[in-house]
């Protein structure tokens, strides 16, 4: 029955492909995979359509899953001859799909490995296909040689090992058009969701209001308070304004957050990053500061209860050493994001929700035009390892945990996680805060933030803020020169800072930096 249904879906998908309706075809293949998640052919078809949609990261992960299914199948000894022959030819197809996607992601060493595997089956290839592969092999080897040379030159700044550097590709940070969980998609959504956010915000920040901004978040138009209509199709820029006048030194937001530290095996509380031994709890409460099953210790009863309630049960007693191994291969900055992604996945598993529906990430913006590094270890194998650790199946659980969901989550984290830096590029701790994430940046901020001892982030006005004026924090040290600030934003944050100070400093010097600071930033 399900075979018949799948054949029908494949047939209809083919018609959609002919009409160049790639999104439609993708949807039908996904439906087919839900009926039979172990059908390698369907994974290959979906990989091809992902390639057409210019999502090589998804094309790669689909083809790699199909390939794994076939490798497992071909390892069986009781396979019938027709089945074996079909599987071998299918495998060639999947190797090609992996190669194509890897080339698109610029992961040259990985691409070379697929070429080697294709060449071991050279007798099954046409002459033309063999020639194409050999010429690809030659050009990839040339690229790797050039990359090796570049690595030696840039060795100091990269801080990653040679092997990973050679296989370090790039991909666009995409917005997946089929993402039904993308908030603020319609005018109705904007009104409703801004309302939801402000209802949650009011108890912890009665003087603040999350509103929609015009394109440039630093030039706020008072007439647009809040949720004025706009023809923008994508997610609008949001920001926070004062509902009423705020005076200097006033505490304006006190938000509990999700905290991660880079050394997961260290002595810090897994919930709030405080040192565990610094617990102020009375001895009688010690039992209540540890998980009864795995004995993980937290710094307080409150942290222990919150961890057990939100994510700990999904990872309790699980071995995370493989995850840590892949995380360590990434750059230090990305490792925090990976650990956050793992935490959010664990929260989603524990609460049986879709990861993108978790309120901690639901409203966060994900879209930037940035190119991000792509590496087989910390972009793909790490994801597989997370699923395995959480008891999920990479084939069966695509409804909630498909790779595009994971990548959307990563994008949201990339744009919104706050890092606490030990040294530049080396965040020791990270924080994910829903409401602080709506605060836009200014190099002349009118508010500052700090972490209090209860794992909350507190925002305090550093100047008087008038009613309806936007509240700004500074994401970086605002004391460095404008060229350095712009470089930091483009490199690390993925946007060009358009704050009044930057516009003034760049504009006034006709593109060149002026050292004199604005009167506001001198305060
Ligand atoms: C942490 S979020 C701030 C809230 C965001 N405006 C929203 O709609 O969710 C950071 C994003 O806001 C935008 N942004 C914040 N400050 C900015 C600035 N000074 N110049 C340009 N864009 C800014 C950028 O798109 C950035 O990726």
From TrEMBL:
Gene3D superfamilies: 1.10.220.160, 6.10.140.2220, SET domain, Tetratricopeptide repeat domain
InterPro entries referenced in this protein's UniProt entry, alphabetically: H3K4_H4K5_MeTrfase, SET_dom, SET_dom_sf, TPR-like_helical_dom_sf
GO-annotated cellular components: nucleus
Superkingdom assignment: Eukaryota
PROSITE patterns per record: SET (PS50280)
Pfam families xref list: SET
Annotated ranges, domain SET: 206-476
Listed name of the protein: SET domain-containing protein
Organism, scientific name: Rotaria socialis
